[in-house]
Please model this.
Amino acid sequence: MKFITIDKKDWAKGIEKSRKTYQLFGPVKDENGFLIKSLEHDILPDMDYYDSVMSAKSILFPQTEKMLCATLDESKKDHHIMKKAEIDYSPRAVVGIRPYDAKAIMLVNLNFDTDEYRDPYWCDAYEATTFVGLGINKPGPFDFSTSTGTGPFGEEGLDVLLADLDDKYLAKVLTNKGEVFMNACEFKTQADEKESQALFDILRKEAEKNIASHIDTAKLKEKTILELHEAPFWDDIAFSCINCGTCTYVCPTCWCFDIQDEVKQKDSVRLRIWDTCMSSLFTRHATGHNPRETKVQRVRQRFMHKLKYFLDKYDQGIMCVGCGRCVKSCPVNIDIREVCTTMNSYEKQD
Amino acid sequence: MENPYLPYPVRIDDIEIATEDKSLKTFKFVFLNPEDEDKFSYQAGQFAELSIPGVGEIPIGIASSPVEKGFVKFTVFKTGVVTAHLHNMKVGDIMGIRGPLGNWYPWDKLENKNVVIIGGGFAFTTLRSSIIYMLDPANRSKFKNIDVVYGARSPGMLLYREELFEWEKRDDINMHITVDGTDDPDWKYHTGFVPTIVEQNAPKADEDTYAIICGPPIMIKFTQPSLTQLGYKEHQIIMSLENRMKCGIGMCGRCNIGKELVCKDGPVFTLEQINQTPKEY
Ligand SMILES: Cc1cc2nc3c(=O)[nH]c(=O)nc-3n(C[C@H](O)[C@H](O)[C@H](O)COP(=O)(O)OP(=O)(O)OC[C@H]3O[C@@H](n4cnc5c(N)ncnc54)[C@H](O)[C@@H]3O)c2cc1C
Ligand code: SF4
Ligand code: SF4
Ligand code: FES
Model:
């Protein structure tokens, strides 16, 4: 494995150089906190951020995205014939993405890239993107990512992992894509492999020690879907939920979307828009019949999807990377860690 | 791989009013590019997204049959935004079709079996497709007895009336047509609800008999006990579910029952499968 040392004095210059080939994204602060946004002109990623309110999923899966367009002007030969919207898939890089967010992208990829169908919007964006991660030296109180198979220095889904060493970054180059990005930045000072790995190991262990909250998922697998679905605890869990949907929008692993058409003059576009299973409209039939009519049914759906259906379907762990965003943002303090414990320890009474 | 969200362009070739109250119309579409018809090769029981640029998309069961060539047909009930817009469209208009989507009735498993088809209301579309498929001279010998129980509110609300009465005259299919009620003194068929007609007329189940049910939830609910009484086991009862859908290809996440996505893993399931999932349909 190749390691590169980057003096922080050279950081800005290198990042600027990469703009020749890459469109850059990274953490930026606005009045709501940190967001992962496009780094226009000379804006640098704010590498001192703690965590971001929203995850990096929007880089591949924008909140609103044009899918198709068509002209409705009947004087045009191709009127009412839909075509794929033009989207720029030139190389892009997300600089400073947290390891749990990169892992989340791997999980969402399972949904969008399948043997049967390939979602071209997600897949093309995914292929165009280089993920330059930033290890978390001091994880916050909501972080439980060590329990979800990632952790503050997790490497899955990343092309480069950076460790912040005060006056410099130590970069672990994980893939060819990562190597190409480092070259574009002209970051070339190789560091000793053994020493660097040892340093990463120390940082990781130190960081992991700071993670105080853990969840146990070991027993979720052995329970049946119906057992958990019919368990008596859902009313209590859902009691205070106001169905605002925040937990689903901030979640890096939630991918549900709606499809809507819009028309401006004679031009129509088909858009996809983030949706939420917390809304009753999500499942309501035209007849008015609704398979998830009540709040309890919808809250149960969210947790069952994350902690059971996904687990059973893909056998790749739960659909949660332990970022803690939903816990932090929920206005009524519904906590997935507690729900997971309740589900994991549930024993059906006969 | 192709963009699974991009519909094939089609032209409306014919529109037929399907029921006396005009709430249902049958649309016949022709593909603008003939090679798209080959790509849209389907099986009875599948559905498609009817796609109107600027308005939206709706999942609709394919009512034409794989043995009918040169067009595809759908019968649509007017209820909301897209269906209302479609009802106002004219022959010659251009729109799109995306599919075929979902699984289909298990035709391999149904070979050399007795098949009982049970439909209610306007959920008869993919059942029509299935009957035409089974009655095709190339296929009829693959199946043993075919029984059909089909009911609607009144005679004028039965879909595909002419075909029903044609089938009624044939001796290789047993039709049990019923209406909830009628004041037509010449009505020659049954009156009564589907579950009762099933109980009185459907064949008793042996190992080689399968039932396919499509209809409003209430009909399905009350027909199940009738079938159980006739000896049908859970794996011999085949159903097609309708959940709200958008993508139709298992990506947008709204149509699930447990870990199954109705659009991709379904819409066809056996009662045995359904009984192992949360009943969120
Ligand atoms: C597999 C399948 C087969 C179907 N086959 C037929 C058929 O052959 N004939 C027929 O008339 N109807 C059929 N339906 C129901 C039909 O899809 C809805 O009536 C239709 O989507 C309503 O659309 P709308 O825009 O008019 O209603 P609105 O209430 O305005 O709905 C807005 C959108 O929500 C979604 N939606 C709403 N209700 C449903 C629903 N019940 N099922 C799925 N999506 C929904 C659609 O994307 C729709 O465009 C089928 C549904 C499914 C899932
Ligand atoms: S954020 Fe909290 S209140 Fe809002 S939908 Fe999620 S669980 Fe319910
Ligand atoms: S469920 Fe909550 S903690 Fe888990 S990944 Fe989503 S937002 Fe983060
Ligand atoms: S309709 Fe999108 S997942 Fe089924």
Summary: The radius of gyration of chain B is 18 Å.
